[in-house]
Design a protein that fits this description.
This protein is α+β, with helices and mostly antiparallel strands. The protein is built from five helices and eight strands, in the order αβββαββαααβββ.
């Protein structure tokens, strides 16, 4: 029997472990995931974001609610994410519904970020056209000066999302392209595995 079917009680626990094993193997940004959303015209778009938490039911990420992905998630609160680590020859796909995290969770994560990242998030109208990066650098400097070393308030248009998994696929590279693939589908509180051909 495949070790994918014996890996963990839930596939997302396996994802969390694989992120740490990729980090130990030297992968750069092992939390990076390609996040796909769908616009009002039905066309998909994808970009890389950082996964900032995994538990038995969900993965979490943070961004501007006014960004393209934020607007698309507001209209169609469903997404797919893909993790891939060349260092360990593994991949994980996650699909499910998306909901906004609580203000408290968003505040906690925002204030755990480096100050420069907090300031940049506060002045950048993510995904909107701008004249130049210099105007954002100037805005960040002015905001920092105005705060005089005080706490950077989390912008109301910035926060976290939870992607509640309904389907998770674990993939490991195999010899001669006979890759090991198992898709887990959530049925109530139970994850049901199904082996897929490579």
């Amino acid at each position: 029997m495949s070790n994918l079917l014996e890996a963990a009680p839930t596939p997302l626990r396996t994802l969390a472990r694989w992120i740490e094993e990729a980090r130990a193997a030297g992968a750069l940004e092992p939390e990076a995931m390609a996040l796909a959303t769908v616009g009002p015209d039905g066309r998909p778009s994808a970009r890389f974001v950082l996964c900032r938490g995994v538990d038995d039911d969900e993965i979490r990420f943070f961004t501007s609610y006014d960004s393209r992905k934020g607007r698309e998630l507001a209209g169609r609160p469903h997404a797919a994410a893909v993790f891939h680590w060349e260092a360990t020859r593994r991949q994980v796909r996650v699909e499910g519904d998306v909901a906004i995290l609580s203000a408290e969770a968003s505040d906690a994560y925002f204030h755990s970020r480096p100050r420069g990242s907090q300031l940049s998030a506060s002045v950048s109208p993510q995904s909107a056209p701008i004249e130049s990066l210099d105007e954002l650098r100037d805005g960040r400097r002015r905001l920092d000066e105005s705060l005089r070393g005080g706490e950077v308030p989390r912008p109301p248009g910035w926060g976290g999302y939870r992607l509640v998994a309904s389907t998770v696929e674990l993939w490991t590279s195999g010899d001669d392209r006979l890759h090991d693939r198992v898709r887990y589908e959530r049925r109530g509180d139970v994850w049901v595995p199904l082996r897929l051909a490579p």
